[in-house]
Design brief:
Blueprint (H helix, E strand, L loop, with lengths): L26 H8 L2 H9 L9 H31 L4 H20 L3 H7 L2 H7 L9 H9 L7 H14 L1 H13 L4 E4 L2 E4 L2 H8 L4 H17 L1 H22 L4 H7 L5 H12 L2 H14 L5 E2 L17 H11 L5 H12 L3 E2 L11 E3 L7 E3 L8 H21 L10 H21 L4 H37 L6 H16 L3 E2 L21 H19 L2 H13 L5 H8 L7 H20 L1
Parallel strand pairs: 3-7, 4-6
Antiparallel strand pairs: 1-2, 5-6
Helix pairs in contact: 2-3, 3-4, 9-12, 12-13, 12-20, 14-20, 15-25, 16-17, 16-18, 16-19, 18-19, 18-23, 19-22, 20-21, 20-22, 20-25, 22-23, 22-25, 23-24
């Protein structure tokens, strides 16, 4: 769609937009509820200092907390969706800022809650919550008690809270350097100088002209190399901050500190790295195949993203895409497909691009209203069908969570979030491959699926291994110098890419340009998510009623179970190596099929 054809928000038909009237009938209604937040917060604040007096007071406080929390969530959600639909709309900007201010003031006001709640003796509070009146709050209380061993004294907690802002310095400085201060110049494409940015870099890496890829790569990494010492100091500072906070609270390691809240054993993280590491032969075969298909004497780092098969662009209307999703997800039954497809064709989804609308896609729900989906659907892009199914997986996970759990424990964790969405992607891939009518489509489907699994399973595991190595080095008394960081990352590049790859002097600078590394031990969740999803997709499609019901139990769990337990109920044990091994086997099968068809 050309810039001239992109409509203004006001010109988008109502049928193509999400229906936010299920949240508020009008902006005036939203404004009215926004104004209730201070009084609701004040009512909740009246319980400060009284939580331990008796079970009824605690119960009343929980109900007051639920009321204000649910109101804040709904108010913020509505404003956020209005803003994402048209970021150029000044009214939406103002609403978003008002909601953020209300949220910030609310969080500050209730800071007393957790320390006072956890100060209640365990035997007393555990006795109280056995009463049926606490049914809607029991899981919430138990999850709060889970972190109690690592909650410090009030003074110590205050010190850590005061350090929070300064602890973000490394991340903020990296963001400014990476996104604002660095200038990557231009790349010559078709006799034109095109700007090289973070956004265009990925496009250049997919360009079929190898000279373009090489120029973009060399210029991009030379800028990072020129700032190598600063970048290394910033990342080292972030690692040191992680270790400081984990040791201050008494955790055995920074990894344990990051996983403890979700009750994920450290063994799950290390098992992921070990299992993927034991199956790198299929990844090395993929790169050897890539070298052969591209006709190269030596594969370089700038050759790993160019498509292996020509893009196919069948014209698939939005409604046709919904029906593909319906057919692909048929193994889940009509309740699932009718609900999702009814939402996609009804008020759940904001379908197409308009001026000012956020790019990309997301699913965003709260306890009230629909689990809304933002798309920028294009009928010539097959990948947008996958995106519809992916975001639909998130939304149906949210739909089942809301409809089967009280407000205080309906929200599931990030560890689980990618499972339901990637599950849907796998079913769409299998459906499209089965119904592909020509060889070109099959090649494209197999090539893009292999690349997607590689990016989510192998690449994110490599990142996870790098994070662990850096943190463990410091915990064992070894400083993270520039050379040390680059050496760790170069070793992993050589390990994962194998003997067919030739690296450049600055290839290991990739380890110092990944923003996710400033949110330690997060990326592994992508790898575990796709592992669980592939295992569950196979289990459901090859199983019967019992396997499907197990998957529904997972979707319905919401926040009522810890993630490992919720996935175990679905039929996948993430504490074992089996799901990760199965994901590696799926990738191996794709590489073998690609080898045959290419």
């Amino acid at each position: 769609m050309s810039e001239e054809n992109i409509p203004l928000r006001k010109d988008v038909p109502a049928s193509d937009k999400w229906d936010l009237t299920v949240l508020y009938k009008s902006h005036d209604d939203w404004e009215a509820e926004l104004k209730t937040i201070p009084s609701l917060t004040e009512k909740f604040m009246s319980y400060k200092g009284h939580l331990a007096e008796n079970p009824q007071t605690l119960l009343d406080a929980l109900k007051a907390l639920e009321k204000v929390d649910r109101t804040v969530e709904k108010v913020y959600h509505y404003a956020s969706l209005m803003h994402e639909a048209d970021q150029s709309d000044s009214n939406a900007q103002e609403m978003d800022k008002k909601a953020m201010m209300a949220y910030t003031q609310y969080i500050a006001a209730i800071s007393f809650w957790e320390p006072e709640l956890l100060a209640i003796p365990d035997d007393k509070i555990n006795s109280w919550i056995q009463d049926k009146a606490f049914d809607d709050y029991r899981i919430y209380i138990k999850k709060s008690l889970h972190i109690k061993p690592y909650i410090l004294s009030e003074k110590e907690e205050r010190i850590l809270a005061l350090q929070t802002e300064s602890g973000q310095t490394a991340s903020e400085a990296f963001s400014l350097l990476n996104n604002v201060d660095m200038n990557f110049g231009t790349v010559r494409v078709d006799d034109k100088d095109m700007p090289l940015t973070h956004s265009t870099y990925s496009d250049f890496m997919e360009n079929p002209n190898r000279v373009v890829r090489m120029e973009a790569y060399s210029k991009f990494y030379s800028v990072f190399a020129a700032h190598s010492n600063t970048l290394a100091a910033l990342y080292s500072g972030s690692v040191n901050n992680d270790i400081f906070r984990s040791r201050a609270r008494g955790y055995g390691s920074s990894l344990e500190a990051a996983l403890y809240g979700d009750k994920v054993p450290v063994s799950v993280y290390k098992n992921l790295i070990a299992t993927v590491g034991a199956n790198l032969d299929s990844l090395h075969k993929y790169y050897a195949l890539r070298k052969r298909v591209l006709g190269l004497d030596k594969l370089r780092h700038w050759d790993v993203y160019v498509p292996l098969a020509p893009k196919v662009s069948p014209k698939i209307s939005y409604n046709e895409a919904v029906e593909i999703v319906r057919g692909a997800l048929a193994p889940l039954g009509t309740e699932y497909t009718d609900t999702l497809c009814g939402g996609l064709l009804g008020g759940w989804c904001d379908r197409y691009e308009n001026k000012g609308k956020r790019s990309g896609a997301f699913s965003s729900g709260c306890y009230d209203g629909y689990p809304f989906i933002l798309l920028n659907y294009k009928d010539t892009t097959l990948r947008d069908v996958y995106t519809m199914a992916h975001e639909g997986g998130h939304s149906m996970h949210s739909w089942y969570s809301v409809h089967n759990n009280p407000f205080m424990c309906y929200s599931y964790t990030i560890f689980e979030a990618e499972t339901a969405s990637t599950f849907n992607e796998e079913l769409v891939f299998q459906y499209l491959l089965k119904n592909a009518k020509d060889e070109a489509t099959k090649k494209y489907l197999l090539a893009t699926r292999a690349a997607d699994i590689l990016a989510t399973l192998h690449r994110q595991t490599m990142f996870a291994e790098f994070e662990l190595a850096c943190h463990e080095a410091v915990e064992q008394g070894q400083p993270l110098s520039t050379d040390a960081i680059r050496s760790i990352y170069r070793g992993l590049l050589e390990k994962y890419f194998g003997p067919d790859m030739a690296f450049e002097k600055d290839s290991d600078m990739e380890g110092l340009r990944i923003p996710h590394f400033y949110n330690a031990f997060y990326v592994y969740k992508y790898s575990t998510g796709i592992s669980a999803a592939l295992a569950l997709a196979k289990r459901v499609t090859e199983g019967g009623k019992a396997e499907k019901e197990d998957y529904y139990k997972f979707l319905k769990s919401g926040g009522s179970r810890y993630p490992i337990e919720a996935l175990r109920v679905a039929g996948v044990d993430m504490e074992s190596s089996e799901p990760v091994q199965a994901a590696c086997d799926s990738f191996k099968s794709l590489v073998d099929q690609l080898d045959a068809i290419l």
